[in-house]
Amino acid sequence: MARDLSEVRFLTVAEVADMMRVSKMTVYRMVHAGDLPAIRFGRSFRVPESAVAAAIDSHVTDVG
Hints:
The chain is an alpha+beta fold. It has helices at residues 13-20, 24-33, 49-59; strands at residues 10-12, 39-41, 44-48.
């Protein structure tokens, strides 16, 4: 099954850490734990932007 990846935006670990306001090590831990899907390119990881949004949405709680 061929997927059209032209519309998928991949982010670096540093970009994800900046978006989530956490350290890069926290992002690496999330990737290795399977909490954040990522693709490995050589020695670096790329995370789909949609996965970051989903991770943020799933961890937002209603405190009211």
